From TrEMBL:
This is Glycosyltransferase family 4 protein. InterPro entries: Glyco_trans_1 (IPR001296), Glyco_trans_4-like_N (IPR028098). Residues 80-171 form the Glycosyltransferase subfamily 4-like N-terminal domain. Signal peptide: none annotated. Residues 180-358 form the Glycosyl transferase family domain.
Amino acid sequence: MKNNLYSGKVVYLSTYPPTECGIATFTQDLAWAVAEHTSTAPAIISILQGENDFSHPQEVELTTRKNQLEDYIEAAHFANQNADVISVQHEYGIFGGKDGEMILHFLEHLEKPVVVTLHTILYEPTYNQRKILSRIGQYADRVVCMNSLAIPLLEEIYGIPREKIEMIHHGAPSKLMESKEDTKNQLGLQGKIVLSTFGLINRGKGIEYAIEALPRVVKKFPNVIYLILGATHPEVKKREGERYRKYLENMVAELGLEKHVRFVNQYLTKRDLIRYLMATDIYITPYLNPQQVVSGTLAYAMHFGKVIISTPYLYAKELLRDGRGIIVDFRDSKSIEEALWYLLSNPWRRYQIERKARIFGEQLSWSNVGKEYARLFDSVSSFLLAS
């Protein structure tokens, strides 16, 4: 019998599978992780990013068209009738209107407590972006960030009171029972030193700098292979097709790295993603945006106890401090090359980093994160009942 930390009904507003985006996957994982600590199943209001031409899981009880204002008001009425607490996943791009401002119409029609999880917090927002997030902070009973370094930004830039802000880590899935070597064998990677980057591919990933770092490395360590895991982001594909991937493929050919770089061009199932992560020796996030406050891929890699090389975006600074990874410079393939050379030449140092990452990463399990959200939902509901 499970230990219920919250007895109320949670309704989630977000994108949701089968939509292919990180926030959709996050919401699905969060909803079922919280359900392990509540007495009711989750209900989802799914924000449609395009035509409604696919079927939805049974927990999706309402769909909202991204750019239809009346749908947000209908969604608020549904939440008022069915929820004890509402969980909103916020990123500017998933909602309609300029900078996703239609989310404000949903929030202003709510009559139930609402917790907003922030997936993007900008250092230098436009006037409109700052106004939207400040108003979200006014409507919300709590806002959740996934990085303690973002708390001062929320206070100083967006004027959100500290007592409204909660820090809860991004969750990560459970590991498989197989060993790293068994998983490598299953994937045809036996005998390889596996580097990887995963996620929906776009220019902000900075993958070209990791590729440029490889020529000297593979001469010294010829069993190195770099896996670039994931499909092109759907919105990027609409705008420019596979232009960025073709650019990366051409770079691989020009550098003679065909035997050392492998593209897995598909939207990976969670099980496949876990298998590739388990086979990984060194995980690389050469991302280009210093303001990035959270990365699900980095949380996954940390939870799996991987040696991580990353540029110093805000979330990497948080997760990799205290020797839990290696920080390299932005847009600097030489810096990545030196980090790889150092790690591949020092197995003991790799072991030390893995151990620190594994210990820290335990708290990132979805089981732990779901428990923290269930407690937060209970706290918000109890506070409002008492006031």
